[in-house]
Amino acid sequence: MNVVLIGMPTAGKSTVGVILAKVMGYDFVDSDLLIQNQENRLLKDIISQDGINSFISIENQVNASLQVEHSIIATGGSVVYGVEAMAHLKEIGTVIYLKLSYETIQKRLGNAKQRGVVLREDQTLLQLYQERCPLYESYADIIIDAENLGIEELVVKIMNQIP
Ligand SMILES: Nc1ncnc2c1ncn2[C@@H]1O[C@H](COP(=O)(O)OP(=O)(O)OP(=O)(O)O)[C@@H](O)[C@H]1O
Ligand SMILES: O=C(O)C1=C[C@@H](O)[C@@H](O)[C@H](O)C1
Ligand SMILES: [Mg+2]
């Protein structure tokens, strides 16, 4: 079985995921890096060159094809737009949503466009947050409130909730 981390960009999926893998003796997979490997391009270049719909479709295909065991899987924040990806991830793992307030995400994110976030031209970060929260919640097996927790504290909180 795997543990799948979902949540907004900067929620800590990659940072916390790799530590969690070490502490639990799991492997670590970052699906953003698998996308970059497959495409041989940076995420932000895929988004700027091909557009957000193509990126979402590539992300969906990569995550839907993931064949791993005993791994912590850090997904990209936009993975929840991929129906096939989420169906597959739910089948191969326990899905954990790292939930943070809009204010914290905004502070950590800085300039969303420069980081290559899947944000439509006419969409604000607040609208993106409001659009995504229900998706993260609907796919989550476990929701973890990560607000005001340091990286190590969050690792412990996640470990305590993994079945
Ligand atoms: N618990 C935390 N407290 C403070 N800062 C954190 C915490 N977790 C992560 N960060 C910081 O937030 C930034 C983004 O974290 P990270 O790359 O792990 O996010 P992510 O969820 O993987 O985002 P993405 O969806 O873009 O891949 C990093 O600079 C990281 O150090
Ligand atoms: O939440 C997002 O829109 C994204 C998050 C990153 O992990 C990458 O998957 C990509 O930059 C898009
Ligand atoms: Mg990440």
TrEMBL record:
Pfam families: SKI. Binds 1 Mg(2+) ion per subunit. Its EC number is 2.7.1.71. Substrate binds at residues 32, 77, 132. It is found in: Cytoplasm. Keywords: Amino-acid biosynthesis, Aromatic amino acid biosynthesis, ATP-binding, Cytoplasm, Kinase, Magnesium, Metal-binding, Nucleotide-binding, Transferase. It comes from the Bacteria. Its main location: cytoplasm. ATP binds at residues 10-15, 115. The keyword Glycosyltransferase does not apply. InterPro entries: P-loop_NTPase (IPR027417), Shikimate/glucono_kinase (IPR031322), Shikimate_kinase/TSH1 (IPR000623). It catalyses: shikimate + ATP = 3-phosphoshikimate + ADP + H(+). It is an enzyme of class 2 (transferase). Mg(2+) binds at residue 14. GO terms for molecular function: shikimate kinase activity. Pathway: Metabolic intermediate biosynthesis; chorismate biosynthesis; chorismate from D-erythrose 4-phosphate and phosphoenolpyruvate: step 5/7. Its cofactor is Mg(2+). Catalyzes the specific phosphorylation of the 3-hydroxyl group of shikimic acid using ATP as a cosubstrate. Monomer. PANTHER family: SHIKIMATE KINASE, SHIKIMATE KINASE 1, CHLOROPLASTIC. Belongs to the shikimate kinase family. This is Shikimate kinase. It comes from Cohnella suwonensis.
